[in-house]
Amino acid sequence: MLIALALLLNLVGATLVYLTSARQRLLDRPLTPIASIPATVLMAGGLASWIVDAGSGAGIVASLTSWMLVWVALPYACWWRRGNEVPQGRAG
Questions:
Q1: Chunked mean pLDDT (size 10), the chain, 92 residues
Q2: 25-44 burial by CB neighbour count: b if 16+ within 10 A, else e?
Q3: N or C terminus: which one in the chain shows less Cβ crowding within 10 Å?
Q4: Is the distance from CB of 64 to CB of 8 less than 8 angstroms?
Q5: What would the 3-class secondary structure string for 8-77 be?
C-alpha cells in the first residue's frame, strides 16, 4: 500500500511540475508558478514514502525513475493527443 501511495505522490507531483513549465503543451497556459510549492511537497512525500518502504538507496532511485517517467512520457502524450502536429518554426 505504501508503494502505491509513493508512486501516486510522485506522479502527481511531477505532473504539477510539468504543468508549471512554460514549455508544457498539455494546457493552453501553464499553471501559476505558485503551483510548484504543492508539487515539491508531493514529490518530497513520495520520496519519503519510497525511502520508508524500500530503504534510502532504492527509494531515491525509485523516486528519480518515476519522476523521469512522467517528464518523458507527458510531452509524447501531448504530441499524440494534438494529432502529431509539428509546431510552426520547428520543422526540420
A1: 95 95 88 94 97 96 96 89 66 52
A2: beeeebbeeeebeebeebbe
A3: C
A4: no
A5: HHHHHHHHHHHHHCCCCCCCCCCCCHHHHHHHHHHHHHHHHHHHHHHCHHHHHHHHHHHHHHHHHHHHHH
* HSE-CB of 82 using CA atoms within 13 angstroms: 15
The number of beta carbons lying within 10 Å of the beta carbon of residue 10 is 26
- Whether the Cβ atoms of residue 59 and residue 9 lie closer than 8 Å to each other: no
Which DSSP state fits 91?
-
Domain ranges of the chain: 2-81
pTM of the model: 0.83
Query: What is the rounded distance in angstroms from the CA atom of residue 67 to the CA atom of residue 59?
Result: 12
